[in-house]
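So, could you explain the following?
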Amino acid sequence: MKKLILGVGLALLAGTASAQTMGIKAGLNYTTLRGADADNYDYRPGYTAGITARYGFNDMIGIQTEALYTSKGSKRTYHTSDIETEERLRLNYLDIPVLLHLQVSGLFFEAGPQVSFLLKGNQIVEVSRANTTTTTERDITDNPYPIDFGYAAGLGYRAPSGIGLGLRYNGGLKNIDDEGGFEGRERRNTSFQLTLSYVPNF
């Protein structure tokens, strides 16, 4: 798996070398899980950061590829008698979207497929009873399926200076529990993403 991720990273670097323009972006995620077995999960904050490369067919239309380190996951709280339990899932991915990018007078729209590679997964459980709280953390990197497929769609504004503000929705098309200890559950990643970027205009 690590060799696959390294190979993808090298391919991206090779491809961006011929890009018409490159930039950087970073921002915040608001992520959760959707599906038949994710009814009780709430959104949790995360982050994203990485590089972006654009290939323009003309001043309006182009293809944008990105390599983003993204923190995803979810949280839920449930009660049993006098015990409160909070479970948090932290799933860190390398996201690689390939988007059709349309820009008119600074406004831009983007949409396309996305593949994500799981880098690290943790489950944090806090159990509170009376005035006592016990926290346990477990590595679950081998539980979710290591590759996730989805889509991304968003809009935003980019100033003539190249600084842009974007809002994006990421939806998962594949259950993350196709193997490992949670196999059989129907849960998919989903998130809203607010980012600040710098990409020089064509």
The mean pLDDT is 86.
